[in-house]
Amino acid sequence: MKRPLADEIRPQTLEEVVGQRHLLAPGAVLRRLIESGTDVNMVFYGPSGTGKTTIANIVAARTNKTLYRLNATTASLQDIKDIIADVGTLLAPGGVLLYLDEIQYFNKKQQQSLLEFMENGALTLIASTTENPYFYVYGALLSRSTVFEFKPVPPAEAESAVLRALELQRARAELPLTWEEGVPLQIATSCGGDVRKAINAVELLCQAALPKDGGLRLTGEDASQVAQRSAMRYDRGGDAMYDLASALMKSLRGSDPDAALHYLARFLEAGDLITPCRRLLCSASEDIGLAYPQAVSIVKACVDSAMQLGLPEAQLPLAQAALLLATAPKSNSVTAAIGAAWADVKAGRTGDVPRELQNVHADTSGQEREQGYLYPHSFPGHWVRQQYLPDALKDVAYYRYGDNKTEQAAKAYWEKLKGL
């Protein structure tokens, strides 16, 4: 069976690994651990195609322990028991090094079954995950491991891996293989930091190349078709989605319309309308609020239009909403006010509703009791001074007027009416 090109050219030494300079540069902690042969438990966290499996293989080659591999998507508790049964036997005299891929798919019981043997050193674990380990990996297992975060590989570094793949393909090709200038960097750029995806694109591009003038020529146009949508790293409900949602929200809050459109476009390319709609609706109240009260109704109309239109037309009302929010005046007075009020309620600082604000009650004789409530509309300016908060909180001020034109106008109006 033919091996995939990405597996065939997998680096065998640290010098061949592309990317992850923060982990593998001379003097970096992970590099020193690997070179010293230290068999510590590790969790590799990061997106696909960034070298997690490659580094695990290099670590395994430097230890005297017997290497076992499991993928948590298909492994069972019995698989773990079978591996642990080999500890201390002739099959694993120096102990076991377990490489566990996609550990986030193991349940708590499966993860717990490793703890005893990690504790006594009979088993060394190298686990990899594309999701945040602090959410998906059992706390006791994390406390016995060191987490290393892998980053998407920059195009300039991924290009060297693409060139290695191209040279290997050229050596094997029955006809002379050439490529247009810029094709290697184009493939490296379009892979979205996933080197495996870039190598797979090279393999597919070479397989699809048509003979011309006695040779094979790889063109930029073909590379664009092979790598289309490859730059998108998106997994609904995963870290990438939440990172994009956070970036969109913070770009709106930071009044950067260009960044807001960029992150919105990434959601649209992934076909996700729900997540950006939620962020836009939230930002209208959280970040704009009373500085431009009409924003929430406009954004709601844009979101409704987008959901009715669907893609690709949904891009227009959503872009309108994003630009409106990014360029609107900002105020977080709503967020601060409800946050302070809710904090008091959570802390038990409540008290009885003032008698004059209670619902009209009847006593045992069936007669309504006098409450003393003052009806504001019966007074000049439709306002009258009376206590609304419970006695325990009667002097609390949750809302602070924002320093924008709209809220300052409201402040001036009420200060004049109340004679403050």
Characteristic key phrases:
single chain, 420 residues, 5-stranded parallel sheet, 3-stranded mixed sheet, flat
Describe the structure.
- It is a single chain.
- This protein has 420 residues and is of the alpha/beta class.
- The strands form two sheets. A five-stranded parallel beta sheet has the order 2-3-4-1-5, with helices on both faces.
- Helices cover 48% and strands 9% of the residues.
- It starts with a helix and ends with a helix.
- Helix 16 packs parallel to helix 18.
- It is built from 20 helices and eight strands.
- The protein is flat.
- The model has no long low-confidence stretch (mean pLDDT 87).
The biggest beta sheet reads:
5 strands, parallel
Low-confidence stretches: none
Shape type? flat
Q: Helicity, in percent?
A: 40-55%
Could you give the count of β-strands?
8
What would the average pLDDT be, to the nearest integer? 87
N-to-C span: 85 Å
Strand content: 5-15%
Structural class: alpha/beta
State the strand order across the main sheet. Answer: 2-3-4-1-5
Task: Present the secondary structure layout.
Layout (H helix, E strand, L loop, with lengths): L4 H4 L12 H4 L4 H8 L5 E4 L6 H10 L4 E6 L5 H9 L10 E6 L6 H5 L2 H5 L3 E7 L3 H4 L2 H4 L3 E4 L5 H18 L4 E3 L3 H8 L4 H14 L2 E2 L2 E4 L1 H7 L12 H15 L3 H14 L3 H15 L6 H15 L5 H13 L5 H14 L58 H14 L2
Parallel strand pairs: 1-4, 1-5, 2-3, 3-4, 6-8
Antiparallel strand pairs: 7-8
Helix pairs in contact: 10-11, 10-12, 14-15, 14-16, 15-18, 16-17, 16-18, 17-18
